[in-house]
Amino acid sequence: MLIRWEMDVTRSFLKWLKFNFTNSQTRLLLILTIIVFMIIIAVGMTTYYSAKSVLQQELSEPQHQMLLISMNDIDEVIQESDKIAVKIALNSNVYKFLTNEEQGSYRNITELVQFLGTIISSTAYVKSAYIYDMERESIVAFPQGYSSNKLNFLDSGWVGVTAELEDRPMLVKQREIAAAGSGKSVSQITLYRKIMLAGQPKGIIAINFKKEQMFRHMLLSSVSDLDSHRFILDNNNNPLYDLGNYDVGEDAVAQVLTQLEGEKLGEFNHEGKLLLATQTISPYTGWRYLSVISQDSLLANAQKIRDIVFVVSLLALGAGAVAITFYNTAAFRPVRRMRQLLSGYDREWINLELIDMEKITGQLLTDHAQQAINLRQTLPEASSKFLMDIYTGNMTGNREIGEKWSRYFKDWNAEPLAVAILSIDDYQAWCEKFKKSDHSLLKFAIANIIAELLSGQWRVLSVDLGRDRMLVMLQPLDLSRDTLAALAIGEALSGIPHLLKFQVSAGVSEYHEGFMRLHQAMHEAESALDYRLYLGYERVIPYEEISGNPLPESTAEEHEVMVKLTETIEAGNSEEALKVLNLMFIRIKDEKWHPSSVQTFMESVAMTLERIRLNRETNGCGIEMSGLRTMHLEAAWYLLQKQVGTLAEWFGSLQLRKDFVLCQQMIAFMNNHLEDSVGIQEIAEHTGISTSLASQLFKQEMNDTIHGYFTKLRMEHACKLLLDTDYRISEIASMVGYQHENSFIRVYRKYKDVTPGKYREMMRSRRDSLSESELPYDRLM
User: Fold this and answer.
1) 542-546: Cβ within 8 A, 24+ apart
2) Whose CA is closest to 517, among 402, 409, 408?
3) Cβ count near 748 (within 10 Å)
């Protein structure tokens, strides 16, 4: 009986299904329900993983930038400490300590300890300094004093570092020392440098760091409240320093390092926890800077959204089933309603088979409204890019300019307008004074100050041109009033030194009717701003004041001056090098050179100094060429004089050293064989020494390998050929010793971070732009 009842129920249900699904509208509704279910599932999962990827990228980039900032600051501390070690090694009392037969001379030891104390007291991150005599095993230290034997010196376990220093001039590593009175050991980071006398190692200098002071830059405020931890690991991945609010065990760190390998960013699963890690490695010390973040809190909301979307999809599937049942009683009521709503549209849009047209139409209207909002929000960015394209010369067509002007500047009219180019005074010093992360914020503050102070009488639009420069376009609201653009800009900029603690200068164009002369106005403002070189800082310079000045002239003897300057510097003749430079300075002031000619000459000097030094020091000569144009003439010239004097004295101190002379012979051989296929063996044979000895001497003296230095010489010569000749890339590759063009491009990109073709395009565009910026507008047109 029960079985028959079950069979009857099943038969009735099948008949009901057959009856309902013979209706095409019911089948369509079922298909749409399944499709909607799948779409919601797909959108939910795609949204989850997209949100996860975006969140990881947005979070990892600031963390990576913080690691880079910390790394650069700590490397700078180590470089400064290495310079202190070199200064100690060159002290005359150190020489006496290592060479005098009577080593324990009271006067010598006293002066030496006082010298060490003076140097250490001048730095906040050095705790103590030791000098170790390798032959007599005696030690002079501050603050400990003199010990005739290392066995009598409490902290002498480090002297075994001699073996590690054999192939390098300097070493930084962590060691363990006994804490005074406690019997426990504490970690100590120490910089070691050899003292060479007559080409032989005679002693070792040890600089002990104050660990908290050395790593104080790791205490930068976090960019978020997420659980994170940052580490500094040495060359053997041993921890040097760490901080954070998230406990990351040694096993997790080891797993992260194993899986990251050379990658910048990675995601890991450790003991059920999802971790996001980013790293960077110091090219100077080899230390690894690692940041590990827990993603549990980061992805909590995204996971909730994913689960909610899944539940919604199930509800949609259930709603579809209910709708199929309900459809028999209200089949086309939504369609009739939709037909009424769409009665004013083309009848091709109306399809009796579509039962969800009302929802589709509502979505279309919502999308349209959202697109209108997005357009209004992106309008300022589009108008800024429009002015940037005109400034850089990427937009020259009158028709295109007119169309975009009418689209982006509906509130502006055809009345006269002016352009001001703002520039931060002494930009290089400004960059050193303020953190890089604050640069955009400070320039945004300048734009806000100008907009706030000028909004009552002017239409104003500010555009960030990058680095030190900003563009401000102004149009007076009332032409009947006294509307001097330069005066208005001057009043707005006068408050910046008080509010932001730095100075800004500006060049202001004449008024021009119509947007078609915007390019001319920009050139006028640039030309006026260049006269800051003579007039000084915090100046607003109208174009009317300088428009009658002569155009720039070429300096025919510039190459001759560069050659003579190079010769005197490399000869170690500081007095003669400064004389050559000062004669040109006197001539510039007497003849009142055009600012662009002065800037071109000073940048040539800076490039020459950088080429001379090449890679002898990690930071080059320290002159930002783009920063010279933001400086007053005397300040820029003082900077160049200081660098010339320092370089010449440095070369002079090396002239009498045999190792240095051998290295110079190798460098001369390299310069004469840039296009030849020569290797380290031929270079060493030219100087009459073995390959291994040549490599050792060159690394010691030039702080670079022979192959690396030779490659850099070739790349510098390639830069000159790219800029000054029209040879093809393949021809230039052959002229600098590369048989295959692809090999040359790969090496060039590694050293210059840009391909040869892109470098030629960028540098020539920059040079042409600089020369064109000084031509009258009618000649430009």
Assistant:
1) 542/485, 542/486, 542/508, 542/510, 543/507, 543/508, 543/509, 543/510, 544/510
2) 402
3) 26
Query: If phi over 0 gives left and psi between -120 and 50 gives alpha, with beta otherwise, what is residue 393?
Result: left
Map tokens 């129920």 to a residue. 9
**Backbone angles phi and psi of 508, in degrees to 5:** -125, 130
Could you tell me where the beta strands, DSSP code E, fall in 73-209?
Answer: 126-133, 139-142, 145-147, 170-178, 185-197, 200-209
SS3 480: coil
Give the span between the Cα atoms of 388 and 391, in whole angstroms. 5
Q: Which residues of 190-216 are buried (b: 16+ CB within 10 A; e: fewer)?
A: bbbbbbeeeeeebbbbbbbbbbeebbb
- The least confident of 240-254, 391-405, 729-743 is 240-254
Task: Find the angle CA(339)-CA(341)-CA(343) to the nearest 5 degrees.
Answer: 65
| pTM for the whole structure | 0.42
CB count within 10 Å of CB 484 equals 13
**pLDDT tens-digit series, residues 192-235:** 898 888 878 888 999 998 888 888 777 554 445 667 788 888 87
**Cα dihedral: 338, 344, 347, 351 (round 10):** -10
Each as own residue / partner, the long-range contacts of residues 683-687 (CB below 8 Å, 24 or more positions apart, any chain) are: 683/710, 687/662
Give the C-alpha separation, 265 to 262, whole Å.
9
Cα 544 from chain centre: 38
Q: Rounded distance, CA 647 to CA 723, Å?
A: 26
Count of Cβ atoms closer than 10 Å to residue 458 Cβ:
24
Instruction: Tell me how many helices (H) and strands (E) the chain has.
Output: 30, 16
Integer Cα distance of 618 and 622 in angstroms: 10
- CA separation for the pair 228, 67 (Å, rounded): 13
Q: Is 638 left (phi over 0), alpha (psi -120 to 50) or beta?
A: alpha
52, pLDDT greater than 70: no
DSSP, res 294: E
Query: What is the helix (H) or strand (E) element at residue 265, kind and residue range?
Result: strand 265-270
Tens of pLDDT, residue by residue over 134-162, are 888 888 988 888 888 888 888 888 888 88
| Dihedral-angle region of residue 286 (phi above 0 means left; psi in -120 to 50 means alpha; beta otherwise) | left
Could you write out the DSSP letters of every residue in 486-550? HHHHHHHHTTHHHHHSS-EEEEEPPPBSSGGGHHHHHHHHHHHHHTHHHH-SS-EEEHHHHTTSP
Greatest pairwise CA separation for the chain in angstroms:
122
Coil, helix or strand for 402? Answer: helix
Alpha carbons within 13 angstroms on the beta-carbon side of residue 517 total 17
What amino acid is encoded at 55 in this protein? L
φ, ψ dihedrals at 33, nearest 5°: -60, -45
Q: By three-state DSSP, how is residue 572 classified?
A: coil
What is the token pair recorded at 24? Answer: 């095409």
- Tens of pLDDT, residue by residue over 238-292, are 887 887 777 777 777 777 777 777 677 777 776 667 777 888 888 878 788 888 8
Structure tokens at 303: 């996971």
